[in-house]
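Handoff note, outgoing to incoming analyst
You'll be picking up this chain. Sequence as last confirmed:
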Amino acid sequence: MHRRHICVAEIAQPWNDHDLQSLHDDHYINGPQFNDFDFYDVLDADIVNQHVTNNDVGNENGRQWMSTRFEVETGVVGVLEAGELFIFHPDIRGEVGAYVDSVESVLPETDPAQLSQLTELVHIAAAEFSLTPVLTDPTSDVPLPPRGPIQVAPQFARLAVLKYDCTLATICLHTSPSDYGPSDLTVFSGDTSRFIALDGDWNELTQSPSVLQSHVLRLQQVCEEHPSQLVRDVAASGVIRLQGLLWCLRLTVMRQPGYLMSLKQSVDESRYEMGIG
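Most recent structure output, in case you need it:
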C-alpha cells in the first residue's frame, strides 16, 4: 500500500546515461518491488540527487563508485507526478494509507493486492475530483498540463474516500475485474450517463483503450459544438481529455482485459492518442 520505496544502488561517477542504464539493469531494491512501474523512466540524476539520504564514495580497481540510498514515488502517484500531470499533497499518502489500514482491520483476510488496488483507485479518484475548480471555472488561471501540473489537495482525497463508487470497501470491495461496471469509470455520474448516451458498451470498452479514447474524443467534440458557452469553455480548457486519461488509468488499475499494461504505458498512450501535452 505504501508508495514510497527505498532503493540502494552502486553507480559510477559522474552521472550519465550509461550509468543510469546500468543502474536500471543491476539495481538492488531494499523493500517491495516496483510493481507496474518502469524504474529507468522515473530515475534520473535530478531525482537521485533530490532524494539521496546517505551515500558512501570509494574507488575499486580504478573505478569510482557511489553506494547511495534514495527514495522514489511509485504507483499511480509516481506515474502522474513524473509525467508532470498532477502533484499530490504530501499528507494524502498518509490519509489514504490510514483509510485502507482501517479497511484491512475489519477485513483481515483481504488479499493485499486488493488493498493495493483500492489505494490506487482512491488516488485516481482524488486526481479526478481535483479537476473540479477547472470544471466550475474553465477560464480561470488554474494551470493545466503542459503549463503545469494540477495540485491535488487533501480534501479531494477525502472526497474520493467518501464518494467514489467502490471505495466504501467494507460493503463493496471488488475482488475481480468482472466486479466493476460503468459506474466505476468516473467519479461523476453524469459522465457515465454521457458514455451510455454515446452508445458506449462496457464490455467493448474493457477490451481496448482505443474504444474509450475514441469515446473521450467524441465527448470533446460534442462539448466543443455545444450551444452553452460554459460547456465550450470546458472543452477548450483540455480538462475532458485529462479525465479520459484518468479513466484509462483506472481501467488499467482494475486489470480489465484490454488494459493489461504498466501504469506508465497507460498514461503515455493516453497522452499520445488524445493529444495531451
